[in-house]
Design brief:
five-stranded parallel β-sheet; seven-stranded mixed β-sheet; 2 domains; 16% strand; alpha/beta; 12 strands; Aldehyde Dehydrogenase, Chain A, domain 1; Aldehyde Dehydrogenase, Chain A, domain 2
Length: 336
């Protein structure tokens, strides 16, 4: 199967996803929700739209133009997919197939329905992809592995797959940088990065760096429109639990009725909680972020003013070249 055919198949998938009817979207959402209560209609819609965005022909052309992809003997590359947000493993599948290898997919128990449907649509678009994408329960006989999980799971993966080329991803989260001059409209966009997928994704903001003296109300008031998140049963359970802990332990915190803010140097925070930390100077900020680089997936800032950051509201719209953990997945695949 030629590279041009593989590219064309994914482009057609992107077109198909953009053209889904309301009834098709409803069926997808119902199937996803039946196995994972976090996968709401909005979460599924956002995930599908994000993949369609990633598969824009111009984006694929720009991305793949940086690599020399040749027709060589394909290897079996296992991919152990996570299930924290809908279709989170799609990018690894995309990279494996376009690099010329065979994707041996172990689906997450939390995200089987959606991924199976995406793979089925790819089979229908080009039946030759049945030889390039295999769904398996075990990854015993693979030549390389890409696996994503918790810090504990990552240690298991590192040991089990120690004898083959591998990318093993651990738990990460994302942070936001406030300079102090943002408008309420800009801060509202930051709310998208905090509350999309209920904060479950590695690209969700769970930590905010604030300039010394910043008034917290300037942060809390513009995100009031995200209050409906509290009506989700699993989210409110997390919120109530964390709030009770803060109250019992008399930990100083801010509470707007659906989000808890607490001063903490850690990047990773529990669901319904966002950590914040003050910085004195830009150099101080750089040093704080550098110290946490192993835990940070991406940084967001208003209009992307901070170096290497993503504009507010765009954290969950990665381009195909926005690799997880800043590890070039495509280069890894071309090297095995």
């Amino acid at each position: 199967m030629e590279l041009s055919d593989r590219i064309k198949a994914f482009e057609r998938l992107g077109t198909q996803l953009k053209g889904l009817s309301p009834s098709d979207r409803e069926v997808l959402a119902m199937g996803a929700k039946s196995e994972n209560a976090w996968f709401t209609d909005e979460s599924v819609r956002q995930a599908v739209s994000g993949i369609a965005f990633m598969l824009e022909p111009n984006s694929l052309k720009q991305w793949l133009g940086s690599y020399a992809i040749v027709n060589s003997q394909p290897k079996k590359v296992g991919v152990a997919m996570a299930g924290n947000i809908p279709l989170v493993g799609f990018h690894d599948l995309l990279c494996i197939v376009l690099s010329g290898h065979i994707a041996v997919v172990k689906l997450s128990s939390q995200d089987q329905y959606l991924m199976r449907q995406i793979i089925q649509w790819l089979y229908e678009i080009d039946p030759k992809l049945r030889e390039r994408i295999k769904i398996e329960e075990r990854l015993n006989h693979v030549d390389a592995i890409i696996a994503t999980g918790s810090d504990n799971t990552a240690r298991y993966f590192e040991y089990y797959f120690r004898n083959i080329p591998r990318i093993i991803r651990k738990n990460r989260s994302s942070c936001a940088v406030i300079m102090g001059e943002e408008s309420p409209e800009e801060i509202s966009k930051l709310g998208i990065d905090i509350f999309s997928y209920f904060g479950l994704g590695c690209r969700n903001v769970s930590k905010i760096y604030l300039p010394d003296g910043y008034e917290i109300n300037n942060l809390m008031e513009p995100i009031e429109s995200f209050q409906p998140v509290i009506h989700h049963n699993k989210y409110v359970n997390n919120y109530d639990y964390r709030k009770s802990i803060f109250l019992v332990n008399r930990q100083p915190h801010y509470d707007n009725g659906f989000l808890l803010l607490i001063e903490n140097s850690s990047v990773v925070s529990p669901i319904s909680v966002v950590h914040f930390e003050y910085y004195a100077t830009l150099q101080d900020l750089d040093e704080k972020i550098a110290a946490q680089k192993e835990k940070i997936q991406c940084v967001v800032s208003a209009q992307g003013w901070y170096k290497g950051s993503v504009p507010f509201g765009k954290a969950q719209l990665p381009d195909p070249w926005d690799y997880a953990d800043q590890v070039d997945t495509m280069q890894f695949l071309l090297s095995i």
